[in-house]
Design a protein that fits this description.
Layout (H helix, E strand, L loop, with lengths): L14 H12 L4 E7 L5 E7 L1 H11 L4 H22 L4 E8 L3 E8 L3 H8 L3 E2 L3 E7 L3 H14 L1
Parallel strand pairs: 2-3
Antiparallel strand pairs: 1-2, 3-4, 4-6, 5-6
Helix pairs in contact: 1-2
């Protein structure tokens, strides 16, 4: 697992942001990570990113183009997730990102065709080893449960 999935030092921030960051950490609304095994023993490194945490990061940076930076945050976390999974010998990763307007974006990476199969099970698609899906009116926990059920069904 990642040594520190939440690397922001809150002590250097203005008091309101310190308090919000502390609340997000206390309520486990930052970056969550876990490793799951399918029924067939296939491991999956699962990372969930909370929208409120990303929004706080954007405010901390006082950034001009929040959408561009939001994508950069997600992509940086995705690269870190895949790198850590490979280091731990896990060939499958899923990054579940909570988005505004009750949407959840999922990005899958795998060493075989598992990524495409999982994305298809969620109504998405892509390449065999890199695929994804965006789900509307979904909660991240519900999406994680659907991913694990799809993994078990493979």
């Amino acid at each position: 697992l990642l040594d520190n999935p939440d690397p922001i030092d809150g002590e250097a921030l203005p008091q309101p942001l310190q308090e919000r960051l502390a609340h997000l950490r206390d309520t486990d609304r930052t970056v969550r990570q876990s490793v799951h095994q399918s029924a067939s023993g296939q491991p999956l490194f699962l990372v969930t990113i909370c929208e409120e945490y990303v929004q706080t990061l954007l405010e901390i940076g006082q950034l001009d183009d929040p959408q561009l930076v939001r994508d950069d945050v997600f992509n940086a976390l995705k690269r870190t997730t895949v790198k850590q999974a490979k280091h731990d010998g896990i060939g499958n990763t899923a990054q579940v990102s909570e988005l505004p307007d009750h949407k959840v974006r999922v990005s899958f990476r795998s060493h075989d065709d598992t990524a495409q199969k999982l994305a298809t099970a969620l109504g998405g698609g892509g390449h065999e080893r890199a695929a994804g899906a965006t789900l509307e009116h979904a909660a991240p926990q519900e999406v994680c449960e659907r991913i694990l059920a799809a993994l078990d069904a493979l």
